[in-house]
Amino acid sequence: MRKSIWLAGIAALTLPLAAYAQSTPLTADETRFRDLYRELVETDTSATTGSCTALADKVERHLRESGYGDADITRFASPERPREGGLVVILPGSSKSLKPLLLLGHIDVVTAKRADWVRDPYVMVEENGYYYGRGTADMKAMDAIWIDAMRRFRESGYHPKRTIKLALTCGEEGGSPFNGAEWLAKNRPELIAAEFALNEGGGGRTDGQGKLLTASMHVGEKASQSYRIETTNVGGHSSAPVRDNAIYQLADALVKVRGLEFPIRFNPTTRAFFARAGAARGDDLGAAMIVLSKNPADSVAEGVVNRDKSYHSMLRTTCVATLIDGGHAPNALPQRAGANINCRIIPGETVESTRAALAAAIGDPGVTVKVANERGPIAVPPPLDPKVIGPMTTVAAKHFPGVPLLPSVGAGASDAVYFGQIKMPIYGVPGIFGEDMNGVHGLNERMRVRSLYEGRDYLYDLVKAYIGVA
């Protein structure tokens, strides 16, 4: 019954390019929002060179200017990590029976190396219908929308029935032992307690030219886990090289990791996604997605689907080398070489079974494969609750008519993993569309301009649908 809410009556239609890409002047309200978005993007919040606390200071200033006071705003940080602070802001509702709604966002970003970028990653640039800059997509667009919504509610005198909370945290992107969402869940669960939360992870896809194909809600995610593979050797003088070389042995192991392909593992959510998203496409890739949803053993269909890297990742566990190190001197044979392998583990597989698969693929007892770090607990998939999915579907039909809204399992990982321990379901919401992952975590990250403002309108109306009015 719950699934029928998002499956029934959704036609597999798409919007014409002109309706999506049409350029119109920004209103004064949109200009104010863009300036907030720009401030977020242009504040470096990477773990290496930035400060989440500095951005939280700026956000607090905006909230106070909108009328929030000491009783509404809570700042938090670890004494050992003073640059990684965050904040929680609360707008009380009138109902004593409705549990709150939590808006969740991380304000940290992946480090961007200026020399590799075409543009300065921490200067937001608008070009050819896109905003460029680190964090424009992951996830300062949604952060800006959440902050903007809280400002608009307060300034307009909006009185919600349901209390609304916003938590902005640091540490989601890694690079630090401190994670703000984890800290809140463990140390201040009462501060963020809510019936459910809205988070990143959902969204949707275009055809790369602006035509909307699908909207997606995030109702589960893969687990992120890194492994350390390492080789050791007695080494020696570089003037007398031998074939037994730690770096060469590591290189051989990495080739094996590159060739490791985990099997397809469908669950009800991903099977439904591939069937419905395939029907919405109407092309060869779409036809292959439908075939694969019915028969995962169809190698021809799998080959077609695998050409799309995001769909390939949704189907299985993936592992990839992300860091490498080795040697100790330029004139010495290496005594040690190692690499970090980051795996995204699909529900149904485990940290240990993935480690064992890596070791088996490498097939060299001289290469150790160990769990490098514990990202956190495995995410608990939220239920397809009609109270949550219903408004999400209704509001999407208004803003994106004819575009199918589909449940999906995230190929990435988010702070949702930390909320299972306090039994709070987390949903990745649709509304902001992209293509080819928008350069997230890579070079020249971008956000389609119109998608940003359309997502802002959708998410504002969605939040209002959940919180009601007194």
Helix content: 25-40%
Low-confidence stretches: 1-22
What gap, in angstroms, lies between the N and C termini? 30 Å
Major sheet: arrangement of strands? 1-2-6-3-7-17
Question: What is the CATH architecture descriptor of the largest domain?
Answer: 3-Layer(aba) Sandwich
- How would the global form be characterised? globular
Task: Work out the number of β strands.
Answer: 18
From the 3D structure, determine the CATH topology of the largest domain. Aminopeptidase
The CATH fourth-level homologous superfamily of the largest domain = Zn peptidases
Helix-strand makeup class: alpha+beta
Strand content: 15-25%
- Tell me, what is the CATH class of the largest domain? Alpha Beta
The whole-angstrom Rg is 23 Å
The residue-averaged pLDDT reads: 90
Largest β-sheet summary: 6 strands, mixed
Query: What is the total domain count?
Result: 2
Tally the helices: 15
